Amino acid sequence: MEILGYFMALVVGLSLGLIGGGGSILAVPILAYLFGLDEKIATAYSLFVVGSAALVGAVRQYQIGNIDGRTAVVFGLPAVLGVWIVRHFLIPMLPEVLFAFSDFEFTRRMGMFGLFSLLMFWAAFSMLSSKERKSGTGIITYNYPVIFLEGLVVGALTGFVGAGGGFLIIPALVMFANLEIKRAIGTSLLIIAFKSLLGFLLGDAMQETIDWPFLLCFSGVAVIGIFVGVGLGTFIDGSRLKRGFGYFIIAMACFIFSMEFIVQPH
């Protein structure tokens, strides 16, 4: 199972390198089901893996001029705040059983993984959509209240489920900051990197015992996958791959939902 887990860590990086997203949403189920980590540790470790991988991608995007620093700060600061609030205060406060009726108990694990599977469906839908994402004009504008609120909400979701949230951030940057799509993708990677890494370091790393050798090894394999994916991207049809990966995410979401709510209710 561990060998399969490390192979899937490579797939996480491959996806990020090939299509610029999607792979991070696999990190939580890999850590939970292949390595047997509980929901708190799996989502925490996923933040570090996602943040490390996104940071590597952001460096590359910066080199080719696809990052808008001011937008990253305006959106990123409330996103970091949202992640920190959830990881430092909300998650430790949640009881093992959120509520119960009759003989059924709705656990913290069900809540976290249930929401995660719903976000996976959302991410898959965005990948499978036949409509091209509308690009901004490039004349950058700032609707500060909306951008702040969007950053806070995306950060909170990231903290709760451990996914990067690029499929939420990119449309927000296009709509509310009027960024061109390539700059929105690059800026999104920088935002994901800092909110995920800071959320982990300021939250879970201060409260949980972290298995650093394992976490660094898993993250390193994912980063290797990014470089391999970037190289393969010149030979593979990205749009076809993106659709195939979208269907794979739907299958994973169904698997997670059935495991948590049907096969082994907690």
In short:
This protein is mostly helical and 266 residues long.
State the main characteristics.
266 residues, mainly alpha, two-stranded antiparallel ribbon, 76% helix
Structural features, described:
With 266 residues, the chain is mainly α. It has one domain. A two-stranded antiparallel ribbon has the order 1-2. Helix 4 crosses helix 6 and helix 7 crosses helix 8. The longest helix has 27 residues. The radius of gyration is 18 Å and the shape is globular.
Count of folded domains? 1
The end-to-end distance, rounded to whole angstroms, is: 22 Å
Strand order of the largest sheet: 1-2
Summed up, the helix count is: 10
Provide the helix percentage: over 70%
Q: Total strand count, please?
A: 2
**What order do the helices and strands follow?**
HHHHEEHHHHHH
Quick one: biggest sheet? Answer: 2 strands, antiparallel
Mean pLDDT: 82
Overall outline: globular
Beta-strand share of residues? under 5%
Write the layout of secondary structure elements.
Layout: H1 2-19, H2 24-34, H3 39-63, H4 69-93, E1 97-101, E2 104-107, H5 108-128, H6 144-161, H7 166-176, H8 181-207, H9 212-232, H10 238-263
